[in-house]
Design a protein that fits this description.
By secondary structure, the chain is α+β, with helices and mostly antiparallel strands. Helices cover about 40% and strands about 25% of the residues. The protein has helices at about 20-25, 70-80, 100-115, 125-140, 145-155, 175-185, 200-210, 215-235, 240-255, 260-270, 295-305, and strands at about 1-15, 30-45, 50-55, 60, 85-90, 155-160, 165-170, 185-190, 275-280, 290-295, 310, 320-325.
Length: about 325
């Protein structure tokens, strides 16, 4: 049996500038952090001819082209895996559609497991590139490259997205003190809303392709916020980082009318009155997780629990996508 796992992520600055429609013209930058919540993929050899696939549904097929799950189908094709007598299962610590990059994590975990099954060694850069190729190039999803890259690399990492499609990954140069500070005081609360990121990202993608001035200027500003967040974190200016989170959220909401809703806006206001110094919605928007930095974490937890929100506690993951059983 082979078990591969891939971490989910939170974005600390610059989110949205990793879409090809933006970075191919202007270059992108963001800071992303892998967390210790995972997507798992298991492969198991059986004694029957069919490929058995278990996720939210179950498939049994003899031919690759008959696989309904598009990512699984394309990953098997890319890795040239012999599917005869293979059973595949996926599971996750947190459901999909909650803004933590589960699709990119699933794709990297799947590819890592298949490469291990085929006895191939693959490095994080190539793993991320293959995952992006499947989701962006083959399946034409209107998404960026952040999720695949942070899942593959892990850590708290800065990514420069080049106009030619190249990606430079550099660890954020923060002190151990700042790292522990973030782990202790960054809090995640589930809004109860799950959604597909595609519709919101498609809106951004379409406007960027049309050189919509308001959208392009918004992303320029958000990229600058990402660079300022890098400087703030590397110099342990936590108050400045919190200010930048709040500004980022205001600009993020302007990119789509579906980015937030009245309930999310109310929870955000309540959080800022009850121990939170800065915050934003994680992911493309519309639901998922609210993330806050709280100087009074206990007060914020009490207020959010009173509102019916569930907290998910986390630490950072520094291993990235890996095989845990082989």
């Amino acid at each position: 049996m082979i078990i591969a796992r891939s971490p989910l992520r939170i974005t600390l600055g610059g989110g949205g500038t990793d879409l090809p429609s933006y970075y191919e013209q202007h270059g992108g930058f963001l800071i992303s952090a892998a967390i210790d919540k995972y997507v798992y993929v298991t492969l198991h050899k059986t004694f029957i001819d069919e490929l058995i696939i278990k996720y939210s549904k179950m498939e049994k097929v003899l031919n690759i082209e008959d696989i309904e799950h598009p990512i699984i189908r394309e990953a098997i094709k890319l890795t040239k895996t012999n599917i005869k007598g293979l059973e595949m299962t996926s599971m996750a610590d947190i459901p999909a559609g909650t803004g933590l990059g589960s699709s990119g994590s699933f794709t990297t975990a799947l590819l890592r497991a298949l490469h291990n099954y085929n006895k191939n060694i693959i490095l994080p850069q190539e793993l991320a590139e293959q995952a992006c190729y499947i989701e962006i190039n083959k399946l034409k999803e209107p998404i960026g490259k952040q999720d695949q890259y942070i899942a593959a690399y892990g850590g708290v990492t800065c990514f420069d997205f080049m106009k030619d499609g190249g990606v430079d990954a550099t660890p954020l140069q923060i002190s151990q003190e700042t790292l522990y500070d973030l782990e202790d005081n960054l809090l995640l609360f589930f809004t109860g809303y799950s959604r597909s990121a595609s519709s919101i990202l498609k809106e951004q993608n379409d406007k960027s392709k049309k050189d919509d001035e308001e959208m392009i200027n918004n992303l320029h500003f958000v990229k600058q916020l990402g660079l300022e967040s890098k400087n703030a974190l590397e110099n342990n200016y936590i108050n400045k980082f919190c200010e930048l989170m709040n500004v980022h959220w205001e600009y993020k909401k302007r990119r789509s009318g579906n980015m937030s809703n009245t309930k999310i806006d109310d929870w955000y206001k309540i959080a800022l009155k009850n121990g939170a110094d800065g915050g934003k919605l994680i992911g493309a928007g519309g639901g998922g997780f609210l993330m806050f930095y709280a100087s009074d974490a206990a007060k914020l937890r009490h207020a959010m629990i009173k509102e019916g929100l569930e907290e998910v506690r986390f630490k950072f993951d520094f291993e990235g996508t890996k095989v845990v059983v082989s």
